[in-house]
Amino acid sequence: MTRVLRLTAQAARNTVLAALFAAALAGCARDLPPDTARIEALAMAAAQRGDMAAESELRRLAGGGNAVAERELGILYRARPDRRAEAMSLLRRAATANDAQAAFHLGEAYRTSPGNAAGPSAAWQWYQRAAEGGQAKAALMLGMMAKNGDGVPRDAATAARWLQVASELGNAHAMFLLSYAYRDGDGVAPDPQRARELLEESAEREYPPALQELALTVEDPQRASHLMKEATEHRRNNWNRF
């Protein structure tokens, strides 16, 4: 039964993707202004199905200076070793046009790409641009880089500031890390109550480490058991939302 349900869900996703792709091409064929949803549908078709027509349309839109198309094509090409230089160029153009998602992915490329001579330090400005544009994952990365001295000097106060920004943007991972900062007085004044509030909020957003940490601190055995079970289930389901 579980296998049937999985196959049914996959078929439904494929149907939705096909419909989105068809709508995207139809919109382009009518020369409608390409909106973000249509462009992202093209990117999904190109990435998940290897659809060359979708990729060709992305290239056309990117060539016309569409920042969303530049970003999506850059993300697509990041996974191809022979296109990484083009990916960086596309992402940089989109990021410079104030696309926060592109700035985040450009930061990721600088921080993680093998053989990148610039190193993680080059990622900082792009993460910052993305975070200032409301990208929560970028703010989280700034906090973690400052906390760990990854490409920048260790600075607990800077780390706490960016973790606060990410938390305010709803990032559960940042809430969890910031709860430790308030607990230990690391970059902020110690505040056990604020630390607990952040831990609870992170757990409410189903972040597994927060659920597990909370399970170890609550006095109610039944709630502790429930929290631990929930943490295990979310880990098993490959919880990866920051």
Automatic annotation (TrEMBL):
Alphabetized, the UniProt keywords read: Signal
Q: Which domain of life is it from?
A: Bacteria
SMART domains the record matches: SEL1
Signal peptide coordinates: 1-18
PROSITE patterns (alphabetical):
PROKAR_LIPOPROTEIN (PS51257)
Chain coiled-coil ranges: none
| Xref: Gene3D superfamilies | Tetratricopeptide repeat domain
Quote the PANTHER family the UniProt record gives. ACTIVATOR OF C KINASE PROTEIN 1-RELATED, CHITIN SYNTHASE REGULATORY FACTOR 2-RELATED
Q: What is this protein called?
A: Sel1 repeat family protein
Q: What is the lineage of its organism?
A: Bacteria, Pseudomonadati, Pseudomonadota, Betaproteobacteria, Burkholderiales
